[in-house]
Each structure stands twice: as C-alpha cells, then as structure tokens.
What we know:
Chain A has helices at about 15-30, 60-70, 80-85, 90-95, 115-120, and strands spanning about 1-5, 35-40, 75-80, 105-110, 125-130.
Amino acid sequence: MIFGILVNSGPYQHQAADSAYQFARAILDAGHVLHRVFFYHDGVNNGTRLTSAPQDDRQIVERWTRLALEQGVDLVLCVAAAQRRGVVDADEAERHGKDGDNLAPGFRISGLGQLIETAIETDRLVTFGA
Amino acid sequence: MATLHTVNQSPYGRTALARCLNYIQPGAGLLLMEDGVLAALTGGAWADRLGGVDGVEIFALGPDLAARGIAIGAVAPNIRIVDYAGFVKLAVEYDRVQSWL
Amino acid sequence: MLFLHHRAPHGSVVAQEGLDAVLAAAAFDQNVTVAYLDDGVFQLVHGQDTSSIGIKNFTPAIRALAHYGVGQLLVEQESLSARGLARQDLVDATIETDETAARGPQVPLIRLVTRAELSALMEAQDVVLSF
C-alpha cells in the first residue's frame, strides 16, 4: 500500500512531529511505500537545519534528514508556508534577498500541488497536527 | 467504505473527540493517540462516554498510554491497545484515515 | 476529495492556508467538495473588517471559489445554529455556471447541509483533508 503523511505541527511544540516520524518508520518497517511526507502550516519548521535540541533528547530535524537520505523518503515543505515562517533554501534566499538559508538536508521546498498530488497518488493520507 | 478516525487531543481540554463523535458512523474505527489517550482511562467521564458509542471499534496507542503513566489495566475494557505497527495495520484495514485536530 | 474547514478566520492562519489548499486542488482535474463546519462557518460571515487588527482579510478570496469549478460550498446548519448564525449572516454570492444569469438560474455559492448529510459525505470520499 502507498502512504502519504501530512505534518501540520512544528518540532518540539507538539508531539505530532514525533508521532508522524514514528508512523513513517512503521510504514517502512511493514514493507509499505511512503510516497511523501508533506509539511504544512507550522510543520514547515521541521525543515530548518538550525535547531539545537538538548543532546539527551531526540533530534527531530536530523532524524527526518536520515529518513530522507537513508530511506529515500521525499520530504516537502510548502513554499508559501515556509516563506511566511522563514524556512528558505538557497534559491529562495537569493530570490527574496535574504542573507542566509536554512533548509535542512533531505528536504525540498515546493508548492501545494505536491500535497494534492500526494492525496491523489496515495492509498492512505494520514495527517498529524494540532 | 469505513473510516479510521484519529483524535490526538485530550477531550478534557479540547473538543476534537466530542466533535468526532458527532460524525462517526457505525462500522468506523476510532484511534486515540498522543493526548487523546487520556480519554481511555477507565472510570473517567470520557471512557464512560466512549463505552456508549455503538458499532465503533475504539483503539488507543500503547506508547502514548505508557508515556502518560496509564497502565494497561487502567484502560477501559472496550478499548484495544495497539502499537505503531498496529496503527499501520488499521490504516490499511480501514478505507481512509480522518484526523480530528 | 473533501476539504473540511473547522476553524474560525484570523485567530490562526489555518483557515487561510486551508483555502490555499483548496485553490491548489481546484487546479487539478479532481472531484473536489468543500465544506465548512464547527467554527469554520465563521469564515463565510459577511462584513468582516480586519483593518483594526492589522491582518490581511483573506476571506474575500473564498468567494473566488465560485469561479474555480469546485461547485457550491457546503455549510453545516447545526454549526451555524449552535453559534447564533443564520444563512443571512453569510456572504451572498453565486456560482459562475455555463449559463449566464440571463439564460439560467443563479446558483448560490453556499448550500446549507445537515450534520447527517455531511457525515454521510465524509464516508463517501477517497480522501478527507481537514483544516
């Protein structure tokens, strides 16, 4: 079965970012396909590489990165939501005259069409948020 | 076509569970997760209320119960405890997942 | 594909970003249904003036859905009544159809539905997106 995940909450603020990750792992462990994890609303904050969580706690952004790089999961931040909240890749930074970019490895920024495509192409779309 | 509904907010603090119950149909499933598992504590007002919902299978996510110090024996008897692998299985068995946030 | 809007406008960005998602879906050739329930019904109240709170009022764009082929916007009657709202408190707009107003009847943008109807509609979808 093909799954999609929608994450609406930022890291640490709400458990949703953790639950989504654990669900993602369980999908892969069960041998299903995880087509995409789409991040919307404050969920785009899962994609900034500038977080420094306490060493004895989970590293939310880094483990998303590992999911992408090791398992090939497509992690997409909604561009409009990311712009509002200040998560930018190098192209966006240049386009908007920002003096830095902060997108974490393994993530890409794209339009809401990717969420709709996920809804269409997957058998099950599960939403995590608050 | 049956729906698995998920509720991740405490019913004592937020309305998601109450609102979900306004729409849930017989044959559907309801998964309590994150703070939503607080509804599963036996003897609580919400466990009683969930006991009266006909035709709906109710589940609670085990890791979230354990995190909140709710022992297996303290979960209302009509609620089935599942882990994340079980959550995935439920998502496959039901036809769609609808989250009440 | 069913879009459910549960949240009031302006107090959080969810209502606005929820509308953006509907607009994105309208661009795909999909069967899209849009419904407002719970506090979401407040998004359709007419006469909203956000100038004093300094937030851009996105709700006029909801009326633009009339031109995007998503059909009528469903509004739950029970949610309205519980909140002291009635049909006349909501925006008064019509959908663009193939027939112009001169040749055919004007279809209202908003259609009231009951909770029971909405509940049945949820069960008939491939996917439900909630905002």
